[in-house]
Design brief:
Length: about 350
């Protein structure tokens, strides 16, 4: 029996040694199986973009067919159709007319809103632009100091401004104010005033984040009702001129869930079309959220310390985890978006992807 035992042990040892020899990396560096695991990190894809802080990349959106579009301060619009291998300028500031604060897309059509002249539209992925906000009510340029969000819903585009919400047809005509039910106040010069920071929709249900909380419309903006139960009150600091707890981003997720990132209260979600909201802040050390995006049920946020966190919302107890910043320059991050299961961020000097 002992002899058989030793023979068996020797055979097992021999086979194990053979396996180890076969598992050793080859000397061929191109052999994929021989390469050690490399942790994902951020890589610059900003070739062709202005690469200095005076022309910082301020906004980034994902369009169809892996096309990305960006706006660079003082330099205008750029886009890429090859996942960031190269960028081309599609419009300078003489066309756009000022700093772009928001833009959105529907297929190949892009709507962009700036802080001075209004709304512009491109029907060819940003290759050319035309102004469509000539339908704004008379005198709007005197009191709308910012267009912060634009959203296509059904046959309309909705525009969030410092003076409430406006609605227009897809070609920009028939623009009207749609603020019935919203708590507009009178500004210092007698103009209507209500800061609306974001717009999102679930089919024909439209949601907006405002200086007075979250509101919902089920009739294309003709009327609005408060939909804020469970959310912290928005606080205005007159000394610094900013808002705490106001929504910075609304996202419609799967299973009719809504997610809202806030400036000071972290992230909240609603599972009942906005009737009630619950916090989702486990793992977050800084609740001042600047930006948020998602890839399926994975959500990504950037806080005011420019840290990036990720959360799988399908978990029973969703918890945020801090992502690596390896490959990113230290400091300012100006935008985040996702396209075809890839994550992108903009910084003053370039655009980066995580892989």
């Amino acid at each position: 029996m002992k002899i058989k035992y030793y023979i068996l042990v020797g055979l097992i040892s021999f086979l194990g040694a053979c396996k180890k020899n076969n598992d050793k990396p080859t000397e061929n560096a191109q052999d994929q199986d021989s390469n050690p695991y490399v942790a994902p990190k951020w890589h610059s894809i900003g070739s062709g973009l202005p690469n200095n802080t005076n022309n910082a990349v301020l906004n980034l959106i994902a369009l169809s067919d892996s096309c990305l579009s960006s706006y660079c301060y003082s330099m205008g619009m750029y886009n890429t159709i090859n996942k960031g291998i190269s960028w081309n300028q599609t419009a300078n500031n003489s066309v756009i007319g000022g700093r772009i604060l928001s833009y959105t897309s529907s297929g190949d059509t892009i709507y962009a809103g700036n802080e001075v002249r209004g709304v512009f539209m491109s029907t060819n992925k940003g290759s050319s632009w035309s102004m469509i906000s000539n339908g704004f009510p008379a005198g709007i340029s005197n009191y709308v100091t910012g267009i912060y969000s634009i959203k296509k819903v059904g046959p309309y585009i909705f525009i969030a401004t410092t003076s409430g919400v406006f609605r227009a047809s897809l070609n920009g005509t028939n623009m009207v104010s749609v603020n019935n039910g919203l708590p507009l106040t009178v500004g210092t010069q007698g103009y209507p005033k209500l800061y609306v920071s974001n717009i999102e929709n679930i089919q024909n249900y439209i949601y907006i984040t405002t200086a007075a909380g979250i509101y919902k419309s089920t009739d294309y903006g003709n009327t609005w009702t408060l939909s804020n139960s469970g959310m912290p009150a928005v606080i205005y600091d007159s000394f610094y001129g900013n808002y705490s707890n106001i929504g910075s981003k609304l996202i419609y997720g799967s299973f009719f869930y809504l997610y809202v990132a806030t400036r000071g209260a972290g992230v909240y979600y609603s599972s009942d079309l906005g009737v009630s909201w619950q916090s989702m802040n486990s793992g977050l050390s800084n609740l001042d959220i600047l930006y948020m995006t998602n890839i399926g049920d994975y959500y990504y946020v950037i806080n005011s310390q420019y840290e990036i966190y990720v959360c799988n919302t399908l978990n029973i107890s969703p918890t945020w985890s801090k992502m690596t910043s390896d490959g990113l320059p230290a400091g300012l991050i100006t935008s985040i978006c996702s396209s075809r299961n890839k994550l992108f961020v903009a910084t003053p000097i370039s655009v980066y992807t995580f892989e």
